[in-house]
Write a structure and sequence with these properties.
The complex is a heterodimer of chains A (about 110) and B (about 160). Chain A is mainly alpha-helical and about 110 residues long. Chain A has one domain: Helix Hairpins (Orthogonal Bundle), CATH 1.10.287.3510. Chain A is built from 4 helices and no strands. In chain A, helix 2 (about 15-35) packs antiparallel against helix 3 (about 35-60) and helix 3 (about 35-60) runs antiparallel to helix 4 (about 65-95). The model of chain A has no long low-confidence stretch (mean pLDDT about 85). Chain B has about 160 residues and is an all-alpha fold. Chain B has a single domain, classed as NADH-ubiquinone/plastoquinone oxidoreductase chain 6, subunit NuoJ (Four Helix Bundle (Hemerythrin (Met), subunit A), Up-down Bundle). Chain B is about 75% helix and about 0% strand. Chain B contains 6 helices and no strands. Chain B has helices at about 1-20, 25-45, 50-75, 85-110, 125-135, 135-160. In chain B, helix 2 packs antiparallel against helix 3 (about 50-75). Chain B starts with a helix and ends in a 7-residue tail after the last helix. In chain B, about 25% of the residues are buried. Classes of the chains: A mainly alpha (about 110), B mainly alpha (about 160). The interface between A and B is large, with 78 and 88 residues.
């Protein structure tokens, strides 16, 4: 464990910022370019994970464990979100026989 | 130090593969690998509890749920709806604009001091448990209520409607 901590020394916090921003942007691009609802939910998971990693990095930097507790709550929330979201997707698939997001435009005015 | 950059490169590569692969099942598998690299990141941060939870909850539970739904709906490459190339190009441009905005904000802030572990003990289960059950006891109980609601909601939504007589 000591060697792992030594490995960590020297990585600046803004490299973590840049890395998480790139992952978050990849998630946003995934939401924008895909039409499969399941892939869109996976991109949202990617964005949540980027934010989680950044919270953990800042928590380690400040020596305050509240950030890691917050990450724990976000993970519980993500699990609930995925369960309900996938149930809704199954409902939609049963009614429309497709997972295309463009088949859900009935509410558009 | 080089471990971080190597694992970060792997994460970005597999995240890109996740959103650009046509086959949804391959997409889920690439996302599993991405989450595994995130677990390695948590270990590098000495956040052992989060690493274990990420491994079990994200890779074990959530991704298997995605995989089950994909198999249940029988999706493959032929039924995959794709957007036109123009929309894809515009999406990538919009994402890059977001990235440029983030980098501009970071230049203003200019935080570049190296990450130092102030207290290497904070990520361990013992300390996190103490914090979780002292300061965050009410949110913890509320999250149990949230999970119960989500479970009931998921069962109610996914259940087949009874036949009308």
């Amino acid at each position: 464990m000591e060697t792992v901590v030594q490995q960590l020394q020297g990585v600046p916090i803004n490299h973590y910022l840049i890395f998480c921003a790139i992952i978050f942007a990849i998630g946003v691009i995934g939401v924008l370019i895909r039409r499969n609802v399941i892939i869109i939910m996976m991109s949202i998971e990617l964005m949540l994970n980027a934010v989680n990693l950044l919270l953990a990095a800042f928590s380690v930097q400040h020596g305050d464990s509240s950030g890691q507790v917050f990450v724990f709550f976000i993970m519980a929330l993500a699990a609930a979100e995925v369960a309900v979201g996938l149930a809704i997707i199954i409902m939609v698939y049963r009614n429309t026989k497709s997972v295309d997001i463009d088949s859900l435009n009935k509410l558009r005015w | 130090m080089t471990v971080f950059y190597f694992v970060a490169f792997l994460s970005i590569f597999f995240a890109l593969m996740t959103i650009f692969t046509k086959n949804p099942v391959h997409s889920v598998l690439y996302l599993v690998i991405t989450f595994f690299t995130f677990t390695v990141h948590y270990i590098l941060l000495n956040a052992q509890f989060l690493a274990v939870v990420n491994f079990i909850v994200y890779m074990g539970a959530i991704m298997v749920l995605f995989l089950f739904v994909l198999m249940l709906l029988n999706l493959n490459k032929d039924t995959e709806p794709m957007k036109s190339n123009l929309v894809k190009f515009m999406g990538v441009i919009a994402g890059c604009c977001l990235l440029v905005t983030f980098f501009g904000v970071y230049r203003v802030f200019d935080i570049s001091n190296p990450l130092t572990v102030v207290n290497p003990e904070i990520g361990l289960v013992k300390n996190l448990g103490k914090v979780l059950f002292n300061e965050f006891l009410l949110p913890f109980e509320l999250s149990s209520l949230l999970l119960l609601t989500a479970m009931i909601g998921a069962i109610l939504l996914a259940k087949k409607e009874p036949k009308q007589i």
